[in-house]
Amino acid sequence: MAHDPIETMRKQIDEINLEILALINKRAALVQDLGKEKLKQGINRFDPEREREMLNLLVENNNGPFTDNTIRHLFKQIFQASLDLQKDDNKKVLLVSRKKQPEDTVLTIKGVVFGGGEPLLIAGPCSVESYEQVRAVAENHVKRGLRVLRGGAFKPRTSPYDFQGLGEEGLQILKRIGDEFNLVTISEIVTPADLEMATKYIDVIQIGARNMQNFELLKAVGRLNHPVLLKRGLSATIEEFIYAAEYILSEGNTQVMLCERGIRTYEKATRNTLDISAVPLLKQETHLPVFVDVTHSTGRRDLLLPTAKAGLAVGADGVMLEVHPDPDVALSDAKQQVNIPQFNEIVDQLLASGLYKEAKIAVER
Ligand code: PEP
Ligand code: MN
After folding, report:
1. How does pLDDT run across 12-55, given as a tens digit for each residue?
2. Which residues have a Cβ under 8 Å from the Cβ of 231 and sit 6 or more positions away?
3. Does ligand 1 have an atom closer than 6 angstroms to the CB of 152?
4. CATH class of residue range 5-92
5. Where does CATH 3.20.20.70 sit in the chain?
6. Pocket of ligand 1, candidates 129, 231, 298, 320: which has the most ligand atoms within 8 Å of its Cβ, to mutate?
7. Distance 259 CA to ligand 1 centre (A)
8. Number of neighbours of residue 281 by Cβ within 10 angstroms
9. Angle, to 10 degrees, between the axis of helix 340-353 and the axis of helix 131-144?
10. Cβ neighbours of residue 245 closer than 8 Å, sequence gap 6 or more
11. Does residue 204's CB lie within 6 angstroms of at least one atom of ligand 1?
12. pLDDT number for residue 363
């Protein structure tokens, strides 16, 4: 049979393709090693001057038939792909990532299991206002089989003239009630200086949305041996949220939980826009428990139940919501807190939906 020149050339092209493939992968492996070395030396991955040098060298040696512009374009693609590879490498090593730890982080606090498969309700007033106010909520918790009580003592308010919280006295109230009713207590701390003090009174330290990128605060809670609930920043991307959690773990504290609480968008119908897809994404990307705050995300009582259901349906480890014995006179978030009967109706509806179960362990008193 006559020798087909097309077949011969195609064979040669296949061989060259394989050579190019081997070479670009060899190059990629080298770039990966270079990236690790740069990380060790604290040098920035992307070096535009170096990229310029490489492109110049290629163009100087380009004898065609490709034009210089085509060569630049092709090699820039290779450079970018290699940089992306370094980025993936850095991600792979994140302590919060599933790649690092495939199994879920489960925290057991006062016998209450966070992230263990059975969703929890974290509820309580926006602010701790008095012993009696928190006690009324706690008594209802016990009746409804709830185990986790929230309440703000240090309130990061938009206006400096608004109620700023009771401070340490508020944490003392939470401690007293937490002990009396055997409830896990959660409260926000806003400065590293208060952390040591706070660990004496509360079971979980909350880092609020406004402090999600307060890196000194993140590092300081990272040095504690105490559970932390980290809320997503007002305008934080999921990547920024994950890195904020990484700050805490990188200092040694592995007892970290995440809370999606809505982000700022152009939408005005709700206080924030609840990013429901953040829940399964965070569950996929990290091994940390993930909660959904339906109060601060929606800012609307009529949306608490449907968004709570949505959160649980997409795999949240629990829901946070605010309940106050008399929301009309609440010192913060009066508009969006529910009263105790309204709260109980939400609990009933969640139980009826099958997405949430009454606590199995009776609350010991
Ligand atoms: C809160 O939970 O009390 C609070 C202020 O929420 P965020 O930080 O999400 O706004
Ligand atoms: Mn609030």
Report:
1. 999 999 999 999 999 999 998 988 888 888 887 778 888 999 99
2. 206, 207, 208, 209, 212, 258, 259, 261, 293
3. yes
4. mainly alpha
5. 107-363
6. 231
7. 10
8. 17
9. 20
10. 96, 230, 256, 258, 286, 288
11. no
12. 47
Q: What number does the ligand 1 atom closest to the CA of 206 have?
A: 2
38 or 315, which is more confident:
315
Percent of the chain with pLDDT over 90: 87
SS3 338: strand
Segments of the chain assigned to CATH 1.20.59.10: 5-92
Q: CB-hemisphere CA count at 13 Å for 310?
A: 17
Give nearest CA residue, ligand 1 atom 10: 209
Give the pLDDT band of residue 365 (cuts 50, 70, 90): very low
Angle made by CA atoms 218, 221, 227, in degrees to the nearest 5: 120
Residue with CA nearest ligand 1 atom 9: 209
Q: Write down how long the chain is.
A: 365
Is the minimum distance from the CB of 209 to ligand 1 under 6 angstroms? yes
CA-CA distance, 278 to 251, in Å (whole number)? 25
According to CATH, what is the number of the domain 107-363?
3.20.20.70
Q: What is the structure's pLDDT at 206?
A: 98
Nearest ligand to residue 210 Cα:
1
Query: Cα-atom radius of gyration of the chain, to the nearest Å?
Result: 27
Q: DSSP for 204-238?
A: EEEE-GGGTT-HHHHHHHHTSSS-EEEEPPTT--H
Residue nearest to atom 6 of ligand 1 (CA): 208
Positive or negative, the CA dihedral 101, 88, 279, 150 is positive
Question: Whose atoms come closest to the Cα of 295: which ligand?
Answer: 2
In this prediction, residue 93 has a pLDDT band, given cuts at 50, 70 and 90, of confident
- Whole-prediction pTM value? 0.81
Torsions phi, psi for 348 (to 5 deg) = -60, -45
Residues 6 or more apart whose CB falls under 8 angstroms from that of 255 comprise: 105, 107, 225, 226, 227, 228
Q: Which residue has the CA at smallest separation from atom 4 of ligand 1?
A: 208
Mutate which of 154, 164, 206, 291 for ligand 1 pocket (most atoms within 8 A of beta carbon): 206
What is the separation of C-alpha 277 from the centre of its chain, rounded to a whole number of angstroms? 12
Q: What is the CA(281)–ligand 2 centre distance, in A?
A: 25
